Amino acid sequence: MIPPTTFALFVGASLALVLIPGPNHLYITTRGLAQGRAAGLASAFGVEAGTLVHIAAAAAGLSYVISQSATLFAIIKWAGVAYLVYLGIRAFTGKQEEGAAPPPQPLGKVFLEGVLVNVLNPKVALFFLAFLPQFVDPAAGSPALQIAQFGLTLLLLGLLSDIVYACTAGALGTRLNRHAKTLRYVSGVVYLGLGVATAFAGRK
After folding, report:
1. CA–CA separation, 150 vs 64, rounded Å?
2. Is 172 helix (H, G, I), strand (E, B) or coil?
């Protein structure tokens, strides 16, 4: 069993992390501005569903393998870069009538994109590898189970933060519908920017 003091320390550190705006928040905000609150929430749940993959990988030790293998890291990194660049190009080249809002994407597709954006970000895998084990106590039971518990706690806190961003962006997006073309270009810039950031993600 995880000692209460250790768990409280982890929660405090995690709150500090999730309150700092990061790439996931930027992605969710972009989605909310472009397509409304429902899309923002769908992307938030998608991102955190992707977090489940990283938690499972960290608990199973796969994150360590990825961090030690240049080939595996490169494959995941460049797959993520390619996907983000694709989203950016699609935002710039999407056809729509002047002054009209872009056609909404099905929420299932928005959710899946959120999953892929997170899963294909190698920096997230390395973050879980570096952060979660710092709180593991070998005397408190199975390290894998502790990592899973810490990871799920971080996921829950992150989801609450994501929902705030999604709802706020959705409310603003409704008011900014008249600037749909501008929002589309902003979305494209954000996706391309995230792609560039992922491209420069170092193994350390």
Report:
1. 17
2. helix
User: Is the CB of residue 56 less than 8 Å from the CB of residue 115?
Assistant: no
Q: For residue 15, give both structure tokens.
A: 């709150």
55-96: pLDDT as tens digits: 998 888 876 776 677 787 677 678 767 877 887 787 777 654
Using a 10 angstrom Cβ sphere, with 0-12 exposed, 13-18 middle and 19 or more buried, the burial of residue 112 is: middle
Q: Are 129 and 63 in contact (CB under 8 A)?
A: yes
> Crossing angle, helix 4-18 and helix 143-175, to 10 degrees?
30
Phi, psi of 2 (to 5 degrees): -70, 130
Condensed to tens digits (0 to 9), the pLDDT of residues 30-39 reads 888 888 899 9
3-class SS of residue 75:
helix
Angle at 149 between CA 147 and CA 150, to 5 degrees: 65
Here the tokens at position 50 are 């992707």
Look-up of token digits 């550190």:
13
* Contact (CB, 8 A) for 41 and 64: no
